């Protein structure tokens, strides 16, 4: 029976090795670096140990805390909207409506576009002088002058702090709602048909079936979608980088952008690692709280 | 294998030189391939058309590595900071990266090449390169550490240098009987008049997006108002009355520019003038060539040129690019021939005729060119005012420029803070940064 004890670990070994190489080594380096003053491009011998100075600086750095707040504002709207729209769309397109395949394909297309290209597309769409969004807003506003009071006029989308935030939220919702849609759709199609049939025969309305049967049964899938979106939001960088560069001022500078700028514009790798640790801690706390509500991995045994 | 081959052909070339006495020194590195890092800019597009001629005359093959200019630095640092062999043989930097590159010991000084008669032509005449450009882009170690003076060394040659001049629409100015402004007060007044009275045309155009772009716009006005970023003792000077006045001027310019300029980079700023939406352009002199190019401009024939307006003093930009040789390049001789060839009198003149930006005083003064390009006269007149100390070119400038000033000034211009609060906050952040870097520890 000795083999039984060893073999499982043997099979685990490759996974553990990859995990150690891909996760533990970078994490160890990040922790180590956060105690040093070391500039990108310098040899390691030029690094100066700083003790906890980087952490003290982080604690007192209004720039970092402001971008944490910006990230939360951005993340709250993005995740809320994506979950609401994504789940609704999945429920609507679940049944074989005429043209469902066509719509499903169309909805998934934004996911296939590289983030940098998404940023450029939105930047050109929202350009204040030549953008197509302002063009149509102006046309409609001129055709129906009353509507001008309701925003149908030219806006400086990316040059105004609030509108810039709205713009990056819209672009992210546009790109990532399909992701929620796909996961939820797959979940819906995996629901046991007999339960649905029973509910239908009992005369449950569409609304009741959705609210009391489908969504509760999808609970774990919804949580996974939510968790993945939360994690992605904290890593969002390219689209914002291209669209606003964090501006105007620092109104759209999310934490990942501050991290990028500290590491590669200011070349301050030590402090950037400290910020990266903060980002990781925020993410871990978020994930744990979400998993406390329901752990999809644990529940799996009951299926 | 390739390197052995290169060494072999080098030896062969050398032997041939000895055997026949007078070999063409331009061909001494024939067969070498060099990798050149260039920005995606108009000047370099023009220069790229000359690369074949360079290869034909020297036998040196050139591989161009072209990147958007603000992204060049990250790419270059990865290569030139490598301990051993680096893959770039010629790097092109924006002037304000020079101190950072030199402080990290990434660039070759040019003295070993300039003093070696085998690799430097006696006709090179370095004295003919516009002095303010040479100082700004390439001298390190003199006054304040980043200017010319005793102790300064040369690390590169300006290539696509630029200053700032005022360009204006002659047709609009004529139609409305406007005077060409010589001071900021006049310019801002004229800009307001045009925005209010000329249909579909705004008075000016500007860059404004958070980060490097808005800081560039701000620096354009800082020097004429008599302000600086740092005092002589490196303490921040951005809360001075001069700096505050310059920021208000920028705000007024932004208000009289087409909508959206608060998110605009250089490209959008330029497009507004080239498309005829703005009546005045106060920035890089090098836009003049594009404004005269019918394939890029709708205002050909309607552009006038004037000096950068003054306020407290005359002051114009010194900026643009320079080329030099990374320390870890394995083909430094060939790289130097490349830099030398492209900045030589003959090619500088030919490049200028093709629409690129000249490096040399003699090219600026060339009568044929002055007749071809009416703005040359204005540029020549502007150059004595071009401020070599236009921005503090210390190694920390990269960390001050976009992350601190670019954040605060943009916040002020978009109404998130008052101008005074933004500059106070910038001063405090600059002080903390330079304090950490050891500027105040003596």
Concise structural overview:
Chain A has 303 residues and is mostly helical. Chain A contains 14 helices and two strands; from the N terminus they run H-E-E-H-H-H-H-H-H-H-H-H-H-H-H-H.
Task: Note the main attributes of this structure.
heterodimer; A: 303 residues; mainly alpha; MetI-like fold; two-stranded antiparallel ribbon; 2 strands; 1% strand; flat; B: 442 residues; alpha+beta; D-Maltodextrin-Binding Protein, domain 2; 2 domains; five-stranded mixed β-sheet; three-stranded antiparallel β-sheet; 20 helices; 11% strand
CATH classification, class level of the largest domain in chain B? Alpha Beta
> Which consecutive residue ranges of chain A, at least 5 long each, have pLDDT under 50?
none
Average residue pLDDT of chain A? 87
Number of strands of chain A: 2
According to CATH, the homologous superfamily of chain A is: MetI-like
Largest sheet of chain A: 2 strands, antiparallel
SS content category of chain B: alpha+beta
| Strand order across the largest sheet of chain B | 2-1-3-10-6
Highest-level CATH class of chain A: Mainly Alpha
Helix content of chain B: 40-55%
Radius of gyration of chain A: 24 Å
Distance between the termini of chain A: 30 Å
What is the number of helical segments of chain A per DSSP (H or I, 4+ residues)?
Answer: 14
Overview of this structure, please?
The complex is a heterodimer of chains A (303) and B (442). Chain A is an all-alpha fold and 303 residues long. Chain A has one domain (61-294): MetI-like fold (Orthogonal Bundle), CATH 1.10.3720.10. Chain A is built from 14 helices and two strands, in the order αββααααααααααααα. Chain A has a two-stranded antiparallel sheet with strand order 1-2. Chain A is flat. Chain A starts with a helix and ends with a helix. By secondary structure, chain B is α+β, with helices and mostly antiparallel strands. Chain B has two domains: 2-162 and 319-385, D-Maltodextrin-Binding Protein, domain 2; 164-317 and 396-436, 3-Layer(aba) Sandwich (D-Maltodextrin-Binding Protein, domain 2). Helix content of chain B is 44%, strand content 11%. Chain B contains 20 helices and ten strands. Chain B has helices at 2-20, 42-48, 51-58, 72-80, 98-103, 111-114, 131-138, 170-175, 184-197, 212-222, 241-255, 266-274, 287-291, 332-342, 345-353, 361-364, 367-372, 375-382, 397-413, 419-436; strands at residues 33-39, 61-67, 90-94, 139-140, 153-154, 157-162, 164-169, 280-284, 303-306, 319-324. In chain B, strands 2-1-3-10-6 form a five-stranded mixed sheet, with helices on both faces. Chain B starts with a helix and ends in a 6-residue tail after the last helix. Residues 14-19 of chain B have low confidence and may be disordered. The chains are: A mainly alpha (303), B alpha+beta (442). Chain A binds chain B through residues 37, 39-43, 63, 127-129, 154, 156-161, 164, 244-251, 253, 261-262, 264-268, and chain B through 74, 77-78, 81, 83, 100, 104, 106, 208-211, 214, 258-264, 268, 272, 277, 398-399, 402-403, 406-408, 410-417, 429, 436.
């Amino acid at each position: 029976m000795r083999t039984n004890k060893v073999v499982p670990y043997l099979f685990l070994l490759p996974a553990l090795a990859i995990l150690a190489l891909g996760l533990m080594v970078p994490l160890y380096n990040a922790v180590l670096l956060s105690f040093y003053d070391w500039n990108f491009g310098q040899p390691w011998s030029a690094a100066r140990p700083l003790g906890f100075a980087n952490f003290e600086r982080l604690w007192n750095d209004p720039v970092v805390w402001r971008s944490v707040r910006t990230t939360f504002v951005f993340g709250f709207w993005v995740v809320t909207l994506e979950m609401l729209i994504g789940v609704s769309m999945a429920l609507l397109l679940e049944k074989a409506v005429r043209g469902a395949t066509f719509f499903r394909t169309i909805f998934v297309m934004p996911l296939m576009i590289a983030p940098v290209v998404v940023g450029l597309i939105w930047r050109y769409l929202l350009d204040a002088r030549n953008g197509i969004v302002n063009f149509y807003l102006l046309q409609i506003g001129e055709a129906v002058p009353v509507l001008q009071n309701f925003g149908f006029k030219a806006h400086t989308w990316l040059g105004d702090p609030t509108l810039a935030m709205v713009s990056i939220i819209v672009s992210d919702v546009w790109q990532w709602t399909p992701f929620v849609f796909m996961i939820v759709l797959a979940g819906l199609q995996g629901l046991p048909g007999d339960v649905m049939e029973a509910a239908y025969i009992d005369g449950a309305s569409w609304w009741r079936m959705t609210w009391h049967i489908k969504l509760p049964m999808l609970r774990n899938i919804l949580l996974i979608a939510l968790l993945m979106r939360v994690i992605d939001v904290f890593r969002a960088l390219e689209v914002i980088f291209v669209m606003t560069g964090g501006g105007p001022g620092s109104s759209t500078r999310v934490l990942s952008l501050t991290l990028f700028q500290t590491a590669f514009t200011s070349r301050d790798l030590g402090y950037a690692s400290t910020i990266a640790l903060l980002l990781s801690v925020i993410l871990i706390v978020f994930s744990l709280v979400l998993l406390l509500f329901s752990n999809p991995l644990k529940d799996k045994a009951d299926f | 294998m390739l390197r052995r081959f290169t060494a072999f052909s080098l030896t062969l070339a050398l032997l041939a030189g000895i055997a026949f006495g007078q070999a063409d020194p331009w061909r001494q590195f024939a067969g070498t391939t060099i990798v050149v890092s260039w920005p995606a800019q108009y000047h370099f597009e023009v220069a790229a058309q000359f690369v074949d001629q360079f290869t034909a005359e020297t036998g040196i093959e050139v591989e161009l590595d072209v990147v958007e200019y603000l992204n060049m630095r990250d790419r270059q640092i990865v290569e030139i900071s490598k301990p051993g062999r680096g893959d770039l043989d010629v790097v092109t930097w924006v002037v304000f990266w020079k101190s950072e590159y030199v402080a990290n010991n990434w660039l070759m000084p040019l003295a070993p090449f300039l003093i070696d008669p085998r690799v430097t032509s006696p006709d090179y005449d370095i004295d003919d390169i516009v002095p303010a450009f040479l100082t700004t882009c390439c001298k390190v170690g003199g006054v304040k550490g980043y200017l010319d003076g005793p102790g300064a060394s040369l690390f590169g040659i300006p290539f696509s240098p630029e200053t700032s001049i005022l360009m204006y629409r002659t047709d609009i100015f004529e139609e409305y009987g406007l005077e060409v402004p010589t001071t900021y007060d006049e310019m801002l007044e004229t800009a307001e008049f045009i925005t209010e009275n000329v249909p579909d045309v705004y008075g000016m155009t500007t860059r404004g997006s958070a980060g490097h772009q808005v800081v560039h716009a701000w620096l354009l006005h800082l020097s004429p108002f008599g302000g600086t970023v740092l005092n002589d003792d490196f303490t921040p000077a951005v809360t001075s009355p001069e700096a505050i006045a310059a920021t208000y001027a920028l705000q007024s310019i932004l208000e009289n520019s087409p909508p959206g300029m608060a998110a605009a980079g250089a490209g959008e700023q330029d497009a507004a003038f080239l498309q005829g939406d703005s009546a005045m352009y106060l920035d890089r002199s090098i836009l003049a060539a594009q404004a005269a190019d019918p394939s890029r401009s709708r205002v050909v024939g309607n552009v006038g040129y004037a000096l950068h307006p003054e306020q407290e003093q005359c002051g114009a930009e010194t900026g643009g690019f320079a080329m030099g040789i990374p320390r870890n390049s394995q083909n430094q001789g060939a790289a130097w021939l490349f830099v030398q060839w492209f900045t030589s009198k003959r090619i500088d003149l030919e490049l200028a005729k093709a629409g690129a930006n000249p490096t040399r005083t003699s090219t600026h003064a060339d009568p044929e060119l002055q007749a071809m390009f009416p703005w040359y006269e204005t540029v020549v007149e502007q150059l004595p005012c071009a401020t070599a100390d236009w921005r503090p070119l210390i190694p920390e400038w990269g960390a001050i420029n976009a992350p601190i000033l670019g954040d605060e000034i943009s916040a002020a211009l978009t109404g998130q803070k008052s101008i005074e609060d933004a500059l106070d906050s910038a001063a405090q952040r600059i002080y903390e940064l330079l304090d950490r870097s050891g500027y105040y520890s003596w």
